Amino acid sequence: xxxxxxxxxxxxxxVGDIVGNATMIADRCREAAAAGAHIVVxxxxxxxxxxxxxxxxxxxxxxxxxxxLQTLVTRLAQDGCGELATVVGYLDxxxxxxRDAAAVLHRxxxxxxxxxxxxxxxxxxxxxxxxxxxxxxxxxxLHGLEIGMVICEDIWQVGGPITALAQAGVDxxxxxxxxxxxxAKDDTRLALVARxxxxxxxxxxxxxxxxxxxxxxxxxxxxxxxxxGELLLRVPQFxxxxxxxxxxxxxxxxxxxxxYAEFDVHRMILSDDSLAAYSPATPAPMAEPLxxxxxxxxxxxxxxxxxxxxxxxxxxxxxxxxxIDSAVxxxxxxxxxxxxxxxxxxxxxxxxxxxxxxxxxxLAERTGLHYQVQPIGAMVEVFVRQLSLSGIAxxxxxxxxxxxxxxxxxNQHGHLVLATGNKSELAVGYSTIYGDAVGGFAPIKDVPxxxxxxxxRWRNALAEKRGETPPIPPSSIGKPxxxxxxxxxxxxxxxxxxxxxxxVLDDYVEGDRGFSDLVAAGFxxxxxxxxxxxxxxxxxxxxxxxxxxxxxxxxxxxDRRLPITNxxxxxxxxx
Amino acid sequence: xxxxxxxxxxxxxxVGDIVGNATMIADRCREAAAAGAHIVVxxxxxxxxxxxxxxxxxxxxxxxxxxxLQTLVTRLAQDGCGELATVVGYLDxxxxxxRDAAAVLHRxxxxxxxxxxxxxxxxxxxxxxxxxxxxxxxxxxLHGLEIGMVICEDIWQVGGPITALAQAGVDxxxxxxxxxxxxAKDDTRLALVARxxxxxxxxxxxxxxxxxxxxxxxxxxxxxxxxxGELLLRVPQFxxxxxxxxxxxxxxxxxxxxxYAEFDVHRMILSDDSLAAYSPATPAPMAEPLxxxxxxxxxxxxxxxxxxxxxxxxxxxxxxxxxIDSAVxxxxxxxxxxxxxxxxxxxxxxxxxxxxxxxxxxLAERTGLHYQVQPIGAMVEVFVRQLSLSGIAxxxxxxxxxxxxxxxxxNQHGHLVLATGNKSELAVGYSTIYGDAVGGFAPIKDVPxxxxxxxxRWRNALAEKRGETPPIPPSSIGKPxxxxxxxxxxxxxxxxxxxxxxxVLDDYVEGDRGFSDLVAAGFxxxxxxxxxxxxxxxxxxxxxxxxxxxxxxxxxxxDRRLPITNxxxxxxxxx
Lengths: 575, 575
Prior knowledge:
alpha/beta; 38% helix; homodimer; 19% strand; 20 strands
């Protein structure tokens, strides 16, 4: 049986950094060549980063991508990587418009191109805004083996390019991807890749990006699955890594070029010489799937680290209230950037409990982050007295003096400010705009409150397993949540129990279910009505909230686009 | 020649208020029937408001729209409007998904439907995210006349439905629209409608919505153009109005139903009786086109008024610095809501000039808005001393204490806070996030600084022409702009001259032109590089900026979607 050594390059490009990304790709190609690979596969738009959004509409940017590809292919030949077939995603364009493209680089030339056919225009994706869909499929012959290409969404859609390639006959399909992380998506992904490989009757090599880009995290999880559905190689999530895998391929499977399943299939020859038989490399140890919490934690750390790093921040500052949200954000920041890059601030008011200070100090002690106390009493006093504030106005001034304090330290010392709100709060508007909502990044904005607790317990247990100090004070996990903006205040004064709240939010926000569906699911009508109204009324606050890592099926933001001005209420017409 | 009396109903629905919108539509139908109209045409999605964004994906919302249409048609028959053919835009769905639809209501039944074919997915539009395109065209016969329907974008695209209807033969085409305002779009629109009517060889009745919806303003400008390209009726911009127009139609132009220009054309009969000849009504006086400034002012007033009204705010509060931006915002607010609903606040610091206070007081005097002075010295002092602030941190604390003050008064009294920044500042990030950027709405966020001055002069001249007091202090117009955050500070310390800045921004932001294009256009390379870097680096601030009315071809926001994390610099590869 013909053999081929394939390398999957799971890389972390930065959007717009075409020169830096090209250098990184060249480095990985040298690594692949040194490992004896015959072909190396990178992710979708690895050269430009993904998603480039409206940069795709700028001629200068498209020209930059195309030019960098030419420079790269010359450099690869000079670097002794010319024999390695390099499949890399980039941005191209032709007379009809921009293209989400993959190129094959070989012996100093761009020898083949493939344009993405299925352009997702749902969820976070706007690809119909940018790209013209590809309508032909290119199959290239390497060492006598027929290799097809599909890009990302093209493997998710039933029928389409994979079906065409299956009918046309191929020995291998390579698939550059930019598939953002969502909880449990890795399970779906493996099943999908296995199904499509079985349909092909040939191995499918799936190369995903890794790393954070604004609200998205690409988790990697690149893999190769055989035509019999066996997992041959799986790259660990959230790591930059290049792994090789020796494939035994059928060979001789190609039918004539022509039209298959609505696609014109073109064939071209790079090299027709069969490889001499060789001893396969020791297979890389297969990455074990992570637990749910480990995976979410990995996504959150990656998202925060890359937002800070790619935007040039060396340190972060955040308010430490002694509560669970700020404690988890601090622990994430320490894991992402190291304790020395994290500045925590306790900002007690006259309504702050003793434990708000002791728990914050305990957190600082456990994690080793920089810690200081700045009481806000004097600041609040001036506003309340001069403006004669009372009630909610007085409560919010406290949160806003904290916001001003954090921003002042950011301006003075160059820290990135972290907003510590969770998804449940953001959903119902339980936050003070320009107060605790202040920040350049919000690490847990897509994490429901109940999941915040679960992550805290998981992270502490991990530390114990490793013989380290658990970072999060048990008291922060155990105590009832409070905003502490008035005496004896508890979140449950204003909100339902968090487990119940999260259950309703899960159906209303992620599931997009209406009032009657929610009631049919067993929730009390008054409860549903109350929560739905809170969620709808808080849209204006969410619009001004900082970006933060998406981990759920539907995050607030471009995943869920609702008008601010919106009189629809889920009881609808009888209102 | 057969006659027909057509009414254009230029209405202002609220997104989501299906019941309220249906009532408003029924009222307008009674008015049309009383005026002897045979057919009345409403705008696109008049029943649900437009754009509904992700509400289109909620089953309960679609069901609400469909149910309200049924209720409406019954009510129209009961109200004596059954003989009136009512063409109204609404949201529908079928097995394939949601549809951007128009219905014909007649004699108590929904007798015909038309689904939009061309779905815009550029600029502010995401219609491929929501809707399945229509592929058939419905032509209905009313009093023996053949009437076709197209929806919005369907008349903008060359070929397509209009070409099919021209080939199939029709006596009249009606076009429900939701066409957002942009500077000078009315000129384009008239030329377009005239061109398409000439292609049809039959009149085209274009009914647009009017009113504000978040960042969009629909300006109306509904019109009827004859098959010879003559303008027969034009409804004034920014007004809710129903106007009638008697048409002399060719009749007998219909060819067989079947396939024309890739569309299946279906014909159906509502009534075959020719109307007896009648004397035409006196034509409505033709709306004169507004001057550029009058049109922009109308859009800004409409956008602000509707944002406040539709979101339940009875009053607004804003900081008055004595400068041109806050003065123009105040004048807009007074025009939109009345002086008694506007609260202006002078918040001097130790760096504030004498004229900052006297000009603000003069503005209050001229407009009659509520005015108070709240010095921020004591507030700033606490932060600066306690946190040892200097430099930019100290400057920004002043803007942030003003932000906290405005929000406190909003919380205490229920006012909507207005952010007063202009587009040039927003472009280059010349604002303090959580400081002067605080607000629920930003009336002039899409108005370049040079246009702010022009609007101020125009508004004052208008007042003089009317014999009223010009609202904006001449000193605010004449003096050099300053943020007054440090002694003797001027905007020109940090920024190029505004005329030059706006010229570059016009090409870079609205024109999406790259570095070399800008240099080729005659701008100095250092200047271009400096401005481009400022614009790119301020993306994170714009994300957290309040919504405000779009008036240019490309507003910041969903019109221009760029990543925050973005290392692309317009000098590109040589960087």
